[in-house]
Amino acid sequence: MQTNGEALFPKAKVMVDPFHVIAVSNKRMDEARRIEQAVHPGKVQIPKKIFLVGREMLSKEKIAKLDALL
Known about the structure:
The chain has helices spanning 4-8, 18-39, 49-52, 60-69.
């Protein structure tokens, strides 16, 4: 079944923009973090930045904390 776009542009290729894939992923991770904190108020404090920084940029202590959170 063709969508309207496929009918209009039959030779078009679907492209994925890595920037927007990461942006949406970060948004969903932050959403999950906020939900966890809302479900367990006062018990769970998850820093936002720890999920947004590349693992290779984290110190050994922060990597251990990240692994424990995940």
